Each structure stands twice: as structure tokens, then as C-alpha cells.
UniProtKB/TrEMBL annotation:
Gene Ontology MF, one: hydrolase activity
UniProt enzyme class: hydrolase
UniProt keyword terms in alphabetical order: Hydrolase
Name of the molecule in the record: M48 family metallopeptidase
YgjP-like metallopeptidase domain mapped to chain residues: 96-154
InterPro entries registered for this protein in UniProt: UTP_pyrophosphatase-like, YgjP-like_metallopeptidase
The keyword Hydrolase is assigned to this record: yes
Signal peptide: none
Keyword Magnesium attributed: no
Organism: Allokutzneria oryzae
Amino acid sequence: MLLVTQAEVEVRRSTRRRRTVTAYRDGDKVIVLIPARMSRSEEEHWVAEMLARLQRSETKRRSPARQSDEALLLRCANLSARYLGGKANPASVRWVPPMRTRWASCTPSDRTIRISERLRDVPSWVLDYVLVHELTHLLVPGHGPRFWELVRNYPRTERAVGYLEGLAAAAGWEIEAED
């Protein structure tokens, strides 16, 4: 995870911009948009302010489950209790190097779940959807109607599927959201 404070910063001045200052991440770089009339000291102030805001925003989106396999397992226990009646209990859940065609996988016979490292930086509600999806495989194999009925107990299912489809398309990955 690249921290905002370690990122390269590019300041872009605009004659059309009058009062507002904006910052966003573009790959490994943070772009800060400021009015052209700002002084260098104002620029320094606003760059520091916008980096701090961006850091807070990115931190809020991060799930604590990103920190370790143990944290993932704990998150799964919470999600299982909340959305699957506590019936889905994996033996292990772990982060693995990026998978070529999947976001995650589950082996019901040994109750293991593997989550692609590609999901470390997605919003927490997207990671939660993937975890609920894989937990449901511990209860129902395949992607039949009963499977989807249980997965849809998670209220952001449709949004998360759309997010993952968009992420895969934008990155050029051949990942199916259903897997």
C-alpha cells in the first residue's frame, strides 16, 4: 500500500479555477489542482491539507481485514454471523498472490478460502461482498438460485458486482465477477 505522504505530488495551476482546491490519485502520483493566482505559501498549505484529506479518505475506506490473514478470518466470522446465520465457518482465509481469472476461491472440502491480493485496495464493502460470496460456497456449491439467495442477504451485492466488473474491465483483467 502506497501511503499518500510517500506519493509523488504534481501541482496543476488553472486560470479557470477561482477558489476550489482538489486532489486525486493518478496511479502512484497525487494530482493537486489549485487556482493559478495562489502564492507559493498558499500552495504549500493546500498541498499539505489535500494530502491529509486524501489520506483520511483512503484510510476510512480500508477494511481492517486487509492487515492479515487472521483479520480476514475474523471478518469472515462477523460476516457469517450477520448474513449467513453463523453457518459458514472457514478453517482458514488467506491473502494470495493475484489470481489470473478470479477474485477469490473456496475449497468446501477443506473449508479454505483464498482472496486475491488485487482486492487489498478495494473499498471495504466490496471486500465484504467477496468474502460473503466465498463463505456462501461453504454452504452451497456452484452458483445456483439457492446460492444467490444467500449471497443477496448482503445488501450491497449488486453494487459490489458492478464495481468488480468495472475494475476488471478498466485494468484489462479477464476476471468474471461471478467466480
